[in-house]
Amino acid sequence: MAPPGTMIAPATRCSRWRGTALRAGSDTSSQTTQVADEGVVVASELPGSSVPSSPLGAPIGVNSPCRAVPARLSSVWRVAASRASTRLIRTGKAVTFVSRPLTFAWLRRLKRKTRLKEARMARLIYSAIMSLDGYTADEDGRFEWAAPDEAVFAFVSDLERPIGTYLYGRRMYETMRYWETAHTIAGQSPIELDFARIWQAADKIVYSATLQAPATARTRVERDFDPEQVQKLKEAADRDLTVSGAQLAAQAIAAGLVDEYQLFVVPAVVGGGTRALPGKVRLNLALAQEHRFGGGVVYLCYRPA
After folding, report:
1. pLDDT value at position 124?
2. Helix axes 246-254, 227-236, angle to 10 degrees
3. How far apart are CA 34 and CA 17, in angstroms?
4. Best CA proximity match to 155, nearest among 261, 303, 293
5. Which tens digits make up the pLDDT trace of 124-182?
6. 17: closest CA among 92, 103, 98?
7. Distance (Å, rounded) from C-alpha 195 to C-alpha 201?
């Protein structure tokens, strides 16, 4: 919408501007008149102007999607602007210019492509079970106090089901590789067998400088955690990824790669150990989901605000 006092020129033909392109007619004397009470501008020639105006009232330059109009305009136009449309009325004879709101088609297409790209990009999720005071393991490296009951285990399985790739540090990988052969152990519950199938079906990437070869299928070893490569992995993946292990997750969080935090807080205080979240990192998060379990565990899902 053009504010009162803005010089607006009739446009030459422009394929990227939605609307009908109009050319000026006969010459008139140079004048500019503003009708304040109607919010209307009456514009004619631009005396001495060498930079023409675009249909939006801004100078046309090399980055403009429209071709330049003549520097000297040759008709008087009244521009009646509103939020819904723009009408150009030539003095003495009405000529209607009908358009949609003043936006460029190419800009709308760019925004649409950006939204589609964002919608297709896989998310990197940090999932952890932690004590009430924020530790995934105590000072002795033990975490049996965090063992989930059946309700929590089933909930975790549902969260893990759509995951396509797990990112692990070496220690977390050595803990989780149990599920590669868990289905062969007698006495497994249906929930445990379900989780084993989910885990086996996903790809795994282990970041380790010392692990020579993986001991599980669908697994590869990377020597260094490269944030740029992980970002490319997110862009190429058609399913979400998770990062597990506090130390590896700290690198992903510091690099701004984590799109969601899935935290299970258990009713235990351990007094120290491995922190679930890194220090010296500031995050502004919004609570997206929460769930309380009968045993006192609380699930909290956060996303960047």
Report:
1. 98
2. 90
3. 26
4. 293
5. 999 999 999 999 999 999 999 999 999 999 999 999 999 999 999 999 999 999 999 99
6. 103
7. 10
**Ramachandran angles phi, psi of 178, nearest 5°:** -50, -35
Mean pLDDT of the region 86-92: 48
- Report DSSP state, residue 100: S
Amino acid at 35: V
Residue that is written with structure tokens 């998060």 in the block: 285
| Beta-strand runs (E) in the chain | 32-35, 40-43, 77-81, 86-90, 124-130, 135-137, 165-169, 203-207, 219-222, 241-244, 260-265, 274-275, 285-292, 298-304
Amino acid, single-letter form, for residue 41: V
Task: State pLDDT tens for residues 19-62.
Answer: 333 333 344 433 333 333 333 333 333 344 444 444 444 443 43
Q: Is 253 within 8 Å of 119 (Cβ atoms)?
A: no
- Hey, what domains does the chain have and what are their CATH numbers? 32-110 (no CATH), 121-304 (3.40.430.10)
Q: What pTM was computed for the model?
A: 0.63
Q: Is the dihedral of CA 199, 176, 289, 281 positive or negative?
A: negative
The residue whose two tokens read 């790809």 is 203
Angle between helices 190-201 and 150-160 (to 10 degrees): 20
pLDDT at position 305 is 95
User: What are the CA-CA distances from residue 281 to residues 209, 229, 245, 256, 278 (Å)?
Assistant: 25, 22, 17, 10, 6
